[in-house]
Amino acid sequence: MASINNPGEEKLDGVGIFVSEKWVDSVVSVERHSKRVLNLRMVLDNGLLNVLMVYAPHSGKPDEEKESFWNEVSCIPQNEMVVLAGDMNGHVGSSNAGYDGFGMEIGMQMVPGSSSLQTG
Fold it and tell me: In this structure, are residues 83 and 73 in contact, taking their beta carbons and an 8 Å threshold?
């Protein structure tokens, strides 16, 4: 495994990514948009792949911080493949009661004009 950093970049808190040695030469760029959003771009046989590592602000953070995060996440061009990975710090509904384990939703997308996800 290789830790991917921009050359000369100070190692900060926030998200990061490890890449298997066999894929390191496929990496074309690493862009840290903030301590919460990092985009690794790789060339694959069928085009560019963006691996977006994120750590979303939790519900107790100010709305400005949440809005800034979602603006950073939406920075990927629409015609490129994206893998979104990380901690989305979210739950569905008005309460988290009864959700002691973990779950996964398939087919999530942003609700326009909102900082919410919808499933489809």
Answer: no
- Other Cβ atoms less than 10 A from the Cβ of 61: the count is 13
CA distance 1 to 24: 9
Cα 114 to Cα 77: distance, rounded to the nearest angstrom: 20
What is the pTM for the complete model shown?
0.64
Sequence spans of domains, the chain:
2-91
Predicted pLDDT of residue 26: 94
- List the one residue out of 16, 32, 6, 27 whose CA is nearest residue 85: 16
In this structure, are residues 31 and 38 in contact, taking their beta carbons and an 8 Å threshold? Answer: yes
What is the per-residue pLDDT across 30-85, written as a single tens digit (0 to 9) for each? 988 888 889 999 998 888 899 989 988 887 888 898 888 888 888 777 778 888 88
The DSSP line for 4-22 is ---TTPPP-SS---EE-GG
Number of Cβ within 10 Å of residue 53's Cβ equals 21
